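FAQ

Q: What does a record look like?
A: Structure on top, sequence underneath. For example:
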Protein backbone atom coordinates (compact mmCIF):
# COMPACT_ATOMS: atom_id res chain seq x y z
CA UNK A 1 0.00 0.00 0.00
CA UNK A 2 1.39 3.39 -0.92
CA UNK A 3 1.46 6.00 1.75
CA UNK A 4 0.18 9.46 0.96
CA UNK A 5 2.77 12.21 0.68
CA UNK A 6 1.55 13.96 3.85
CA UNK A 7 1.85 10.69 5.79
CA UNK A 8 5.39 10.15 4.53
CA UNK A 9 6.27 13.73 5.46
CA UNK A 10 4.91 13.12 8.95
CA UNK A 11 6.99 9.95 9.35
CA UNK A 12 10.08 11.77 8.07
CA UNK A 13 9.49 14.49 10.68
CA UNK A 14 11.06 12.01 13.13
CA UNK A 15 14.47 12.67 11.54
CA UNK A 16 16.62 14.76 13.86
CA UNK A 17 14.44 14.07 16.93
CA UNK A 18 16.11 12.51 19.99
CA UNK A 19 14.76 9.40 21.64
CA UNK A 20 14.13 10.76 25.13
CA UNK A 21 12.52 7.69 26.67
CA UNK A 22 11.33 4.17 26.01
CA UNK A 23 8.98 2.32 28.32
CA UNK A 24 6.45 -0.47 28.52
CA UNK A 25 2.71 -0.27 28.90
CA UNK A 26 1.40 -3.83 29.10
CA UNK A 27 2.58 -5.40 25.82
CA UNK A 28 3.17 -2.06 24.11
CA UNK A 29 6.54 -0.37 23.70
CA UNK A 30 6.28 3.42 23.83
CA UNK A 31 8.91 5.79 22.49
CA UNK A 32 9.18 9.50 23.29
CA UNK A 33 10.62 11.60 20.46
CA UNK A 34 9.11 14.80 21.85
CA UNK A 35 6.92 16.25 20.56
CA UNK A 36 6.25 12.97 18.71
CA UNK A 37 5.35 9.66 20.33
CA UNK A 38 5.46 6.17 18.84
CA UNK A 39 3.45 3.32 20.34
CA UNK A 40 4.24 -0.17 19.06
CA UNK A 41 1.40 -2.56 19.78
CA UNK A 42 2.20 -5.14 17.10
CA UNK A 43 5.55 -6.86 16.81
CA UNK A 44 8.36 -4.45 17.58
CA UNK A 45 11.98 -4.82 18.47
CA UNK A 46 14.92 -2.71 19.51
CA UNK A 47 18.32 -3.67 18.10
CA UNK A 48 21.77 -2.36 18.95
CA UNK A 49 25.11 -3.54 17.55
CA UNK A 50 23.40 -6.43 15.71
CA UNK A 51 21.87 -7.68 18.97
CA UNK A 52 18.13 -7.77 19.62
CA UNK A 53 17.71 -6.11 23.03
CA UNK A 54 13.93 -6.02 23.43
CA UNK A 55 10.84 -7.24 21.60
CA UNK A 56 7.14 -6.88 22.33
CA UNK A 57 6.90 -10.68 22.38
CA UNK A 58 9.25 -10.70 25.37
CA UNK A 59 6.13 -9.80 27.35
CA UNK A 60 4.93 -13.40 26.91
CA UNK A 61 7.66 -14.72 29.22
CA UNK A 62 6.23 -13.60 32.55
CA UNK A 63 5.87 -15.18 35.97
CA UNK A 64 2.04 -15.47 35.75
CA UNK A 65 1.62 -13.50 38.98
CA UNK A 66 2.82 -9.93 38.32
CA UNK A 67 2.28 -8.45 34.85
CA UNK A 68 5.52 -6.45 34.99
CA UNK A 69 7.65 -9.53 35.73
CA UNK A 70 8.51 -10.40 32.15
CA UNK A 71 11.45 -10.10 29.78
CA UNK A 72 10.05 -7.07 27.94
CA UNK A 73 9.95 -4.94 31.09
CA UNK A 74 13.22 -6.44 32.38
CA UNK A 75 15.13 -5.76 29.15
CA UNK A 76 13.80 -2.21 28.75
CA UNK A 77 15.05 -1.45 32.26
CA UNK A 78 18.36 -3.28 31.71
CA UNK A 79 19.19 -1.58 28.39
CA UNK A 80 17.42 1.75 28.95
CA UNK A 81 20.61 3.85 29.13
CA UNK A 82 21.96 2.24 25.93
CA UNK A 83 18.73 2.77 24.01
CA UNK A 84 17.83 6.38 24.74
CA UNK A 85 19.61 9.56 23.72
CA UNK A 86 20.21 8.92 20.05
CA UNK A 87 18.92 11.20 17.30
CA UNK A 88 16.93 9.77 14.40
CA UNK A 89 19.03 9.45 11.24
CA UNK A 90 16.29 7.88 9.13
CA UNK A 91 12.68 6.73 9.33
CA UNK A 92 11.55 4.49 6.48
CA UNK A 93 8.64 2.24 5.58
CA UNK A 94 8.56 -1.08 3.79
CA UNK A 95 5.87 -1.80 1.20
CA UNK A 96 4.00 -3.60 4.04
CA UNK A 97 4.11 -0.55 6.34
CA UNK A 98 6.86 -1.87 8.58
CA UNK A 99 8.55 1.11 10.23
CA UNK A 100 12.36 1.16 10.45
CA UNK A 101 14.05 3.88 12.52
CA UNK A 102 17.83 4.26 12.78
CA UNK A 103 19.42 6.37 15.51
CA UNK A 104 22.91 7.85 15.59
CA UNK A 105 23.80 5.78 18.68
CA UNK A 106 23.52 2.49 16.75
CA UNK A 107 19.97 1.73 17.91
CA UNK A 108 17.42 0.47 15.40
CA UNK A 109 13.71 0.42 16.19
CA UNK A 110 11.49 -1.76 14.04
CA UNK A 111 7.71 -1.91 14.12
CA UNK A 112 6.73 -4.88 11.99
CA UNK A 113 3.26 -5.78 10.83
CA UNK A 114 2.51 -8.79 13.01
CA UNK A 115 -0.76 -10.01 11.52
CA UNK A 116 -1.97 -11.13 8.10
CA UNK A 117 -5.38 -10.42 6.63
CA UNK A 118 -7.99 -10.80 9.36
CA UNK A 119 -10.63 -13.47 8.90
CA UNK A 120 -12.36 -13.69 12.25
CA UNK A 121 -11.80 -10.22 13.68
CA UNK A 122 -11.22 -6.65 12.62
CA UNK A 123 -7.78 -5.51 11.62
CA UNK A 124 -5.49 -5.00 14.57
CA UNK A 125 -3.59 -1.83 15.36
CA UNK A 126 0.12 -2.37 14.76
CA UNK A 127 1.70 0.98 15.59
CA UNK A 128 0.76 4.62 15.99
CA UNK A 129 2.72 7.83 15.59
CA UNK A 130 1.28 11.06 16.92
CA UNK A 131 2.15 14.51 18.15
CA UNK A 132 1.85 14.98 21.89
CA UNK A 133 -0.32 18.07 21.85
CA UNK A 134 -3.65 19.11 23.24
CA UNK A 135 -5.53 17.43 20.39
CA UNK A 136 -2.89 14.74 19.57
CA UNK A 137 -2.79 15.74 15.91
CA UNK A 138 -1.44 14.66 13.55
CA UNK A 139 -2.22 11.04 14.42
CA UNK A 140 -1.22 8.06 12.26
CA UNK A 141 -2.59 4.58 13.02
CA UNK A 142 -1.23 1.63 11.05
CA UNK A 143 -3.27 -1.59 10.92
CA UNK A 144 -2.61 -4.96 9.21
CA UNK A 145 -3.34 -3.75 5.68
CA UNK A 146 -4.32 -0.09 5.95
CA UNK A 147 -3.70 3.13 7.81
CA UNK A 148 -5.67 6.08 9.09
CA UNK A 149 -4.21 9.56 9.22
CA UNK A 150 -5.81 12.47 11.03
CA UNK A 151 -4.26 15.87 10.45
Amino acid sequence: MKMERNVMNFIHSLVGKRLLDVCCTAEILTFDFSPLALHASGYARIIRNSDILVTTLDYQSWDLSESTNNDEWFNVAKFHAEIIGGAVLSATLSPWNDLHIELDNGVIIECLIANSSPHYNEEQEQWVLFECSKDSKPFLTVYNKRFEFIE
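Q: Is there anything notable about this one?
A: Residues 68 and 74 are 8 Å apart (CA to CA).
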